[in-house]
Write a structure and sequence with these properties.
The protein is α/β, with parallel strands linked by helices. It is about 40% helix and about 25% strand. It has helices at about 20-30, 50-65, 80-95, 120-130, 145-150, 180-195; strands spanning about 10-15, 40-45, 70-75, 105, 135-140, 155-160, 165-170, 170-180. Helix 1 (about 20-30) packs parallel to helix 2 and helix 2 (about 50-65) runs parallel beside helix 3.
């Protein structure tokens, strides 16, 4: 194991067929040697389609990040350009709850209790809030399951009755029975009042 200066960042990769397992073994060797440097995992993919790269990278790198094994992530692929590779890496980091680069949306699939057009409403919420970073916004069809399904969201937009919406800050309902046509504007105002509109 080469000596590392304390302020150096280590970039580590593997070409092994079991990328995640080989990388975890290497991280264990670093820890056993007392190396405490930040480590960026580099994942390289060639000969795969863009969709296959995204799937493999999510599995390979996501398991490392969720296990606490890496401080950063780089992805290289002949199927993705630099910008797409960076977006994929940021998406995996955000999914692992390590770095937030855009607003995350949670939505239920909709069911018979959903009393509004869920897809159109989610599109309106996204249009109004997609520039925000680091927030999680839930758009749920009904009051029955919605609050529980979006329990870790920062803000929630939940169908309360026909044509009525309730808004949540975290797990707390802060506005009830808002007319649906005014609800997105109320959500924006709530985010602003709470200081998260940046």
């Amino acid at each position: 194991m080469p000596p590392f200066e304390p302020d150096e960042v280590v970039v580590m990769t593997s070409r092994h067929g079991n990328y995640s397992g080989e990388m975890q073994a290497a991280f264990h060797r670093l820890m056993a040697s007392g190396v405490m440097n930040p480590v960026v995992a580099l994942a390289r993919y060639s000969g795969l389609s863009a969709d296959d790269v995204m799937l493999r990278a999510a599995v390979d790198c996501g398991s490392l990040l969720l296990g606490g094994f890496a401080d950063g992530l780089m992805i290289e692929s002949d199927a993705l350009g630099d910008a797409d590779s960076a977006r994929l890496a940021f998406g995996i980091l955000q999914s692992a709850r390590l770095r937030f680069s855009h607003t995350e949306y949670i939505s239920c699939p909709g069911c018979g209790r959903t009393l509004f057009d869920l897809q159109r409403t989610l599109a309106r919420v996204r249009e109004a809030t997609s520039h925000l970073k680091g927030l999680k916004i839930g758009v749920m069809g009904c009051i029955v399951n919605g609050p529980g399904e979006m329990a870790d969201a920062d803000y929630g937009y939940v169908g309360a009755a026909a044509g009525k919406i309730s808004l949540y800050k975290g797990k707390e309902c802060v506005e009830k029975n808002i007319p649906a046509e005014e609800a997105v504007e109320h959500l924006v105002n709530l985010i602003k009042r709470c200081g998260d509109w940046k």
